[in-house]
Write a structure and sequence with these properties.
Helices cover 64% and strands 0% of the residues. The chain is an all-alpha fold. The protein has one domain. Helix 2 packs across helix 3 and helix 3 runs antiparallel to helix 6. The protein starts with 6 loop residues before the first helix and ends in a 5-residue tail after the last helix. InterPro entries: Cyt_P450 (IPR001128), Cyt_P450_sf (IPR036396). Keywords: Heme, Iron, Metal-binding, Oxidoreductase.
Length: 146
């Protein structure tokens, strides 16, 4: 996966307006996902899409931000439902990524020494952790509801 925006991509659209913000944000998300998950996970593209949706929800209009004392407005506006759906999709994608890395570690036992990413390191800590507070899959996913 290339993390560069090629000039060919930009010049091929020379007669069309180019959304440089979209191109740069896609590149940024790809770099972050690559650092966290490694070269390529099967769910990496889905993760990037759900991350974009999350950012749109975060920066979009939220009624309870204007009227924090009236929490039921989120139910009427549908915002709570949208947030819950995005959370469920994110959780499912992240669990698939964790499971994929766990399977890869078991099948390739020790072959990945120089190619570890954040998920691999956290799974090793989880496996060999004799810690006071054990590291769970929800901790690795940063899922605070589990």
């Amino acid at each position: 996966m290339s993390f560069q925006i090629s000039l060919q991509t930009l010049t091929s659209c020379s007669r069309l307006p180019i959304n440089l913000t979209d191109k740069l944000s896609s590149c940024t998300f790809a770099i972050i996902a690559g650092a966290a998950f490694g070269e390529k996970c099967k769910d990496q593209d889905a993760f990037i899409l759900v991350l974009k949706e999350t950012l749109e929800l975060l920066f979009g209009l939220c009624v309870t931000n204007m009227y924090p004392s009236v929490k039921w407005l989120d139910l009427i506006s549908g915002m709570r439902y949208k947030i819950e759906k995005v959370f469920q999709r994110t959780d499912r994608i992240l669990q698939n990524i964790v499971d994929e890395h766990r399977d890869k570690m078991q099948t390739e036992a020790g072959k990945l020494q120089g190619e570890e990413n954040i998920v691999d390191v956290l799974l090793k800590i989880q496996q060999h952790g004799d810690h006071e507070f054990p590291l769970t899959d929800n901790n690795i996913k940063s899922n605070h509801t589990g």
